[in-house]
Amino acid sequence: MQPLGALGRGPVPMSQRTSEGVARILRTEIFAGQLKPGEPLPERLLAEQLGVSRTPVREALFTLQSEGLVELTPNRGATVRTITSHDIVQIYSLRGVLESYAAGEAAQSRTRQDLDALEDAHAKLERISASGTAAEQALADLHFHTLISEAAGSRLLQTIMNQVLAFTVSYRSNYAYPSDRAAAAITEHRAILDALRASDAARAEQLMREHVASSSRFALEHFSDEEHAVVN
Hints:
mainly alpha; Arc Repressor Mutant, subunit A; Four Helix Bundle (Hemerythrin (Met), subunit A); two-stranded antiparallel sheet; 2 strands; disordered C terminus
């Protein structure tokens, strides 16, 4: 594995030399597409590149395994998890259930600060929807959806959603939305935000379910195209 991104800039600051800090760095590299599916993550080399002992690296890899981002295999070690079409179907099904519930809850409990933060997040999505990289689009989309789960007011829901969304963005970072899908997603996000602003829980829940379903269809189409390209 060659040094990439944060891994190629030498030892990390002392404050990040914990399992949480190492997990954060590796997660960012995976989200940015700099650590590719199937890429090995050898403990010794990671520890050397980050300037830490192997213990926080090992603990970070276990954390990322629990998030579905890393696969740990006996006698092989850790690799960035390769996502399958079955994974995509499952994760978007979970998102449909969890995020529609979160949107309904958020419509009833959101604060003025929540709405302001969502407006800022939506404005950023609009700015980068046409010209942003795949990773920039994915992270901006992640931020918008995370804010909704936070506005729902449940720490447990937020924790579960963070894991589900992390898995999604690791795949979504590999492809940019074309202009038509980007425009549709912006329209869908705006409608959800308007429902939250109106405290319309039923509509927010319905719109989020439809948005996740349309995102799922596009993700599966992209995955199918990608598999076809590999076969040919």
